[in-house]
C-alpha cells in the first residue's frame, strides 16, 4: 500500500489516495474540494480510480466528488458512505454547505455500508467501523493488513471531532472512538480528516478527550 496525502479546501481537509502499488488501483478518501486537480494527479500518475470512500457527509469532505467524477465520464467509480449518513449528505443544513458563503449543495453515495462490514476494493480488505458522534453516520475505514485507519473527523491527533453540529453528540463520539478505534492494535497508523497522522497507541496514552 502507498498513501498520498493532499490538503484541500478552505478548512484544510485531508484527502488521501490509497494506492495498490502492484496494480495502480486507487481509492480516494474524502475528496472535500479541488476534485478536478485531484483527478489531474490521478491521470499524471496513471492510477486507476476504483472507489471514493466518505468518512462522513460534511461539505469539506464531499464537495470535490462531482468535479472528480466528471473527469472520468467513462468509468464507474462508486461512492461509499455509511447508511446513517444519507440524510446528512443530502441536506445542505446538515452537511453544513448552507452555513458557508456559497451555494448550498447536496451529495450522494452509490453504496451505503454498515458497521463491521468488510469491503474488498483495489486489492485491500477494508473494515467499516461506525463512529457516530461527529455526525450520525460518521465512520472509519480500517485496513487491518496494512495497520491503517482512516478516521475522518472522529479521531484526531490529541483530539476528537466537533460535536456541536446538527446530529452531534460528545458522549456518543467518545464512546464510539473508544470502542471502535482504541481497541485496534497500538501500532495502527491513524490518518485523520484534519492535521497530522498519529497512532492508536499515542491516542490511548495521551488523548485527554478519551480519558
N-end to C-end Cα span:
32 Å
Tally of contiguous helical segments: 6
Count the strands?
Answer: 14
Query: Which outline best applies?
Result: globular
Structural class: alpha/beta
- The string of secondary-structure elements, in order, is EEEHEHHEHEEEEEEEHEEH
Give the total of domains.
1
What is the mean pLDDT?
97
Radius of gyration: 16 Å
The CATH C-level class name: Alpha Beta
Looking at the structure, the CATH topology is: Metallo-beta-lactamase, Chain A
Task: Summarize this structure as a short list of keywords or feature phrases.
single chain, 211 residues, alpha/beta, Metallo-beta-lactamase, Chain A, six-stranded mixed beta sheet, 6 helices, 14 strands, globular
Tell me what you see in this structure.
This protein is an alpha/beta fold and 211 residues long. It has a single domain (2-210), classed as 4-Layer Sandwich (Metallo-beta-lactamase, Chain A). It has 6 helices and 14 strands. The chain has helices at residues 35-44, 59-62, 65-70, 86-90, 170-180, 200-206; strands at 2-8, 13-19, 25-29, 48-53, 79-82, 111-113, 118-121, 124-130, 139-143, 148-152, 155-156, 159-160, 189-192, 198-199. The protein is globular. It starts with a strand and ends in a 5-residue tail after the last helix.
Q: What's the short version?
A:
The protein is of the alpha/beta class and 211 residues long.
Protein topology:
Blueprint: E1 2-8, E2 13-19, E3 25-29, H1 35-44, E4 48-53, H2 59-62, H3 65-70, E5 79-82, H4 86-90, E6 111-113, E7 118-121, E8 124-130, E9 139-143, E10 148-152, E11 155-156, E12 159-160, H5 170-180, E13 189-192, E14 198-199, H6 200-206
Parallel strand pairs: 3-4, 4-5, 5-6, 10-13
Antiparallel strand pairs: 1-2, 2-3, 7-8, 8-9, 9-10, 11-12, 13-14
Amino acid at each position: 500500500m502507498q498513501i498520498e496525502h493532499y490538503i484541500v479546501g478552505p478548512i484544510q481537509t485531508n484527502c488521501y489516495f490509497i494506492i495498490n502499488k502492484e496494480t495502480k488501483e486507487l481509492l480516494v478518501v474524502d475528496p472535500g474540494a479541488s476534485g478536478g486537480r485531484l483527478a489531474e494527479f490521478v491521470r499524471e500518475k496513471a492510477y486507476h480510480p476504483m472507489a471514493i470512500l466518505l468518512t462522513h457527509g460534511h461539505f469539506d469532505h464531499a464537495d470535490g466528488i462531482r468535479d472528480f467524477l466528471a473527469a472520468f465520464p467513462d468509468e464507474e467509480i462508486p461512492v461509499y458512505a455509511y447508511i446513517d449518513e444519507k440524510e446528512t449528505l443530502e441536506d445542505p443544513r446538515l452537511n453544513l454547505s448552507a452555513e458557508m458563503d456559497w451555494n448550498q449543495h447536496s451529495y450522494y453515495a452509490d453504496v451505503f455500508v454498515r458497521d463491521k462490514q468488510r469491503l474488498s476494493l483495489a486489492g485491500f480488505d477494508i473494515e467499516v467501523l461506525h463512529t457516530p458522534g461527529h455526525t450520525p453516520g460518521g465512520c472509519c475505514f480500517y485496513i487491518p493488513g496494512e495497520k491503517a485507519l482512516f478516521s475522518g473527523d472522529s479521531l484526531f491527533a490529541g483530539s476528537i471531532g466537533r460535536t456541536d453540529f446538527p446530529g452531534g453528540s460528545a458522549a456518543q463520539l467518545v464512546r464510539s472512538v473508544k470502542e471502535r478505534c482504541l481497541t485496534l492494535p497500538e501500532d495502527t497508523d491513524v490518518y485523520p480528516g484534519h492535521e497530522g497522522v498519529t497512532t492508536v497507541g499515542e491516542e490511548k496514552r495521551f488523548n485527554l478527550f478519551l480519558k
